[in-house]
Q: What sequence folds into this?
């Protein structure tokens, strides 16, 4: 096979012929049917994310793939990480270099991905571990058909949400839902809710660095046919109860950043908003509603489809591997033998910190906070009483 060549260019260096080839690759591979793979997302994120670039892969002078990415020191990450929920090489089926091949071509000390779409290893190797994302896939009967099926199979859950809707209306006034909202003040309200949630739960504040919030604001201003970002809001009487920021392209609608008034949690305003957003958006032709990684309990009641992606950390042989194993050993000592169990959690926390923070000092501060939070959680689990 002809050797793989890579050219690293800025997103603004790609010409219309490159973007046309990009769009043709998306059309050829259904696995790339997500707004995160669209040229519009890369163009906007390329302007906002520090040290953004695109790797253009070619063989024998012919372009075979594009990989939008960002650099943080010697590390390479998907463009707009940690906010990029799907990533991989944009290519025609069977032509994309694997994750390992891409890492080698880029010359990165490490390449960290959380939701890689496409081949990961060479020669039968499959580095990393699989993770599932979950979706609502509407059938021919649209939202009404989905809701009827879900209510029949998960009656207790959905009847409870109907009661919550009536309760909120009785207490606060009629419910009103609007979607397609692009008000910067509404987005700032949502970002404030998320930052408070990160403080409360001990997670890294991904909006403290500034550029991540700028990206959400910039995407709201992108008005291209078939692609965009917008918010939906739920009001109870005059009170704003919940907001959800979503990214959409083609027939795909990706729920991205939800937030709700914590004082109204008993009424499940976030869940009610997701349901009403699906109802309204389905009337516009959206057919797949992506809820991201499985985990939150309500998703099992909503979702009827899933896809498998790959989480992996590709290290260049040498110091990086040694340091990684030493870190696991330290966690084993501090966490009383739970290093392997903690490694995935710590790796995800570190990936978010490294992606957000662009200076060594900020990254070190975030890493220390993340390690402390992970070990404290492990210690709490170890002292929890065991049922007799």
A:
């Amino acid at each position: 096979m002809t050797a793989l060549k890579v050219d690293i260019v800025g997103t603004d260096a790609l010409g219309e012929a490159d973007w046309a080839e990009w769009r043709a690759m998306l059309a050829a591979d259904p696995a790339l049917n997500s707004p995160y793979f669209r040229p519009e997302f890369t163009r906007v994120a390329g302007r906002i994310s520090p040290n953004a670039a695109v790797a253009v892969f070619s063989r024998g002078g012919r372009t075979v793939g594009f990989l939008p990415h960002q650099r943080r020191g010697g590390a390479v990450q998907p463009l707009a990480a940690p906010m990029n929920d799907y990533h991989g090489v944009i290519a025609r089926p069977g032509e994309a270099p694997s994750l390992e091949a891409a890492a080698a071509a880029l010359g990165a000390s490490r390449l960290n991905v959380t939701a890689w779409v496409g081949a990961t290893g060479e020669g039968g190797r499959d580095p990393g571990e699989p993770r599932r994302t979950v979706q609502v896939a509407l059938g021919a009967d649209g939202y009404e058909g989905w809701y009827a099926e879900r209510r029949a199979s998960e009656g207790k859950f959905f009847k409870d949400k109907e009661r919550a809707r009536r309760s909120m209306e009785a207490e606060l006034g009629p419910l009103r839902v609007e979607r397609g909202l692009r008000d910067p003040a509404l987005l700032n309200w949502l970002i404030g809710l998320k930052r408070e949630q990160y403080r409360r739960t001990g997670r890294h504040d991904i909006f403290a660095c500034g550029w991540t919030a700028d990206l959400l604001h910039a995407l709201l201003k992108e008005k291209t046919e078939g692609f965009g970002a917008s918010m939906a809001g739920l009001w109870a009487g005059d009170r704003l109860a919940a907001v959800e920021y979503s990214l959409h392209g083609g027939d795909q609608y990706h729920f991205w950043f939800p937030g709700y008034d914590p004082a109204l949690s008993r009424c499940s305003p976030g869940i009610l908003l997701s349901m009403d957003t699906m109802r309204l958006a389905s009337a516009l032709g959206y057919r797949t509603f992506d809820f991201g990684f499985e985990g939150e309990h309500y998703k099992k009641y909503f979702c009827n489809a899933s896809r498998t992606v790959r989480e992996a950390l590709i290290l260049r042989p040498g110091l990086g591997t040694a340091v990684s194993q030493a870190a696991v050993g330290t966690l084993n000592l501090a966490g009383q033998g739970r290093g392997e169990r903690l490694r995935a959690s710590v790796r995800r926390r570190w990936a978010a910190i490294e992606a957000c923070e662009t200076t060594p000092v900020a990254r070190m501060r975030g890493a220390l906070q993340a390690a402390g939070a992970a070990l404290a959680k492990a210690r709490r689990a170890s002292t929890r009483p065991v049922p007799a």
In short: The CA atoms of residues 206 and 212 lie 7 Å apart. The chain has a mean pLDDT of 89. The radius of gyration is 22 Å.
